[in-house]
Specification:
This protein has nine helices and two strands.
Amino acid sequence: MAGPSLEQWISDRGLQQVNDPDVDKPVYRLPPPDGRITLSAALEERISASIREARERRNLSRSKLAPLLGITEAVYARYEGSVSRLTVSRLIHRCEVLGASPEELLAPAALHLWGENQSKVDLLLACIDKLRAFDEETLQDVFSLLNRLGKSGHRGNGTASAAPFLARAAEPLKRMNGHGET
């Protein structure tokens, strides 16, 4: 599969070349609406702060949380202090132990990935929280509604880019329902 050229991909995504001191070569990043691209070190600091805030919201001390993660309090403190970088698997483990969603821990570090302004970010994150509470049948109904909205020509920002996701997400529902309509 050939796909788009590198230049086309960069252009279509609106990526900008960045010289990040933590990376040996130039990288491409998506600038947030304010145009200020956050470099790797600052992202790590934001993620560390977000994890610390999530722990504090749950009234957990480092000394109580660290053993649940299989590490010492001193090692845990290095993650919250952005001295040590989290791997994705360690981030997932923190979500599990804290009872936190990935959005709760990651959105504060990169709000622009959830929306072009704070109002949209807040609305989307609130919707995700609501969706997590629904049972499977209700989720199927919500998904069917979203799918119908997408087919009816109701287009907001991002709807076109959500179409492949909606199509992929519909496949398990079609198989589960035993027919092609959701």
